[in-house]
Amino acid sequence: MPMPFDTQTCHDQHGRYPQATTVEDFRRNLAAVHARMAAACRRVGRDAAAVRLLPVSKTQPEARLRLAHAAGCRMLGENKPQEAHRKWEAMQDLAGLQWSVIGHLQTNKAKLVARFAHEFQALDSLRVAEALDRRLQTEGRSLEVFVQVNTSGEASKYGLAPEDVPAFIQALPAFSALRVRGLMTLALFSGEAERVRQCFVLLRTLRDRLRQGAPTGIGLDELSMGMSGDFEIAIEEGATVVRVGQAIFGARATPDSHYWPGQPGAQEPSP
Fold first, then answer.
1. Is 207 in contact with 164 (CB distance < 8 Å)?
2. Is 216 exposed, middle or buried (0-12, 13-18, 19+ CB in 10 A)?
3. What is the pLDDT of residues 91-101, one digit of tens each?
4. Which residues contact 139 (CB under 8 A, 6 or more apart)?
5. Exposed, middle or buried by CB within 10 Å (0-12, 13-18, 19+), for 221?
6. How far apart, in whole angstroms, are the C-alpha atoms of residue 134 and residue 136?
7. What is the pLDDT of residues 1-58, one digit of tens each?
């Protein structure tokens, strides 16, 4: 069945995003991303206010995070719990700044996330759910969480297989400090837009099916999907949160080809 849009990915355009080094740079980049988000929403008749931008600040130094905050960023996404915790400790003087942990979490790092994070977007095991819940109870806090789903089928990616998600969702009410908000995925890192789109379609379809029998208190309204190279396609397919790093902070020093599957030294792509 043909797709109604021919929106392309931007994964292969390394260097298209200049480094943001001033507050004005960040304001300009944020405005450009919001404009692209709004255009994607218009194409499918969605309200732009229904899609949240999560700026991803992983690997960025504290000074640049402070510029992003001055430009209006009030939540920042970080992949590594230890790096995020360190930044949280150093930046507690900034009013209203919240933190989202979006990368894989080992149980021995749960205590860090429970201490400071506002949300955690990569929940994919009951062991992690239990560790987080126990630590959160100790801290007297709750945590917004997204269940990570591996929609690309790549062995290199974290996340639950789609067929394992229904039983996982049914088990989550046991962890009262976790506020389940929805699902998250990393799409296939590919220049073939339709293959990327199918990852987002799969997540939305899964979410819509799970909603019908979701346990009381389990929210499945949110879909966190889409990064700098593909967030417009994600929005067309129903994303409510897009995780954008390079289009706000600037291109990585490493070219995108380094992150493509099959390349020597390949790693998971950055937002």
1. no
2. exposed
3. 999 999 999 99
4. 114, 115
5. exposed
6. 6
7. 334 567 776 655 545 788 999 999 999 999 999 999 999 999 999 999 999 999 999 9
| Structure token pair of residue 52 | 């949240």
How far apart CA 16 and CA 10 sit, in angstroms, is 9
Q: Are 53 and 244 in contact (CB under 8 A)?
A: yes
Please state, as a whole number, how many other Cβ atoms lie within 10 Å of the Cβ of residue 165.
Answer: 22
Q: Token digits for 162?
A: 């789609």
The CA-CA-CA angle for residues 86, 92, 96, to 5°, reads: 120
Question: CA–CA separation, 80 vs 126, rounded Å?
Answer: 20
pLDDT, one tens digit per residue, over 152-164 is 999 989 999 999 9
Order of strands across the sheet that contains 75-78 = 52-55, 241-244, 222-224, 178-184, 143-148, 119-123, 98-101, 75-78
